C-alpha cells in the first residue's frame, strides 16, 4: 500500500510547439461557455503530438504533416456524434491553432 504512494509518475510529454494564436469556432465557444465541452485538454494533447482518433486512411494521408510548416490536424471523438478538430498552421513563423467541430468548414 505504501509502495503505491511512492511510485514514479510517467514523465509528461513535452509540447512539439506552442500555439501563438488560439481560435475557437462559434459553436465550440458556445459549447464551452455552457460547460458542455472543455476544448483545452484536446488542444494540449494536440500540441504534444497526439493525433487523436485518426483512422488508418486519415493517418496515412496525414503523414506529410510531419513537416512543421504544413497544417497539422488532430481529431478527437467526444461523443458518437461530436468530433472536435484541432488544426495548427504556421503563418509568418507563428503557430495559429483553430478548434472546430468536424462538420464545420475549415477556414481557408
Descriptive overview:
With 108 residues, the chain is an alpha+beta fold. It has one domain. It contains 4 helices and 4 strands; from the N terminus they run αβαααβββ. The chain has helices at 2-5, 26-33, 40-47, 56-61, and strands at residues 21-24, 72-79, 82-91, 94-101. It has a 4-stranded mixed sheet. Strand 2 (72-79) and strand 3 form a beta hairpin. It starts with a helix and ends in a 7-residue tail after the last strand.
In short:
The protein has 108 residues and is of the alpha+beta class.
List key phrases describing it:
108 residues; four-stranded mixed β-sheet; alpha+beta
Structural class: alpha+beta
Average pLDDT rating: 78
**What is the 3D shape?**
globular
State the end-to-end CA separation: 55 Å
Largest sheet: spatial strand order: 1-4-3-2
CA radius of gyration is 16 Å
Order of helices and strands: HEHHHEEE
The profile of the biggest β sheet is:
4 strands, mixed
Query: Can you give the helix content as a percent range?
Result: 10-25%
Strand content of the residues, in percent? 25-35%
> Could you tell me the number of beta strands?
4
Q: DSSP helix count? A: 4
Structural domains: how many: 1
Uncertain runs with pLDDT below 50, 5 residues or more?
Answer: none
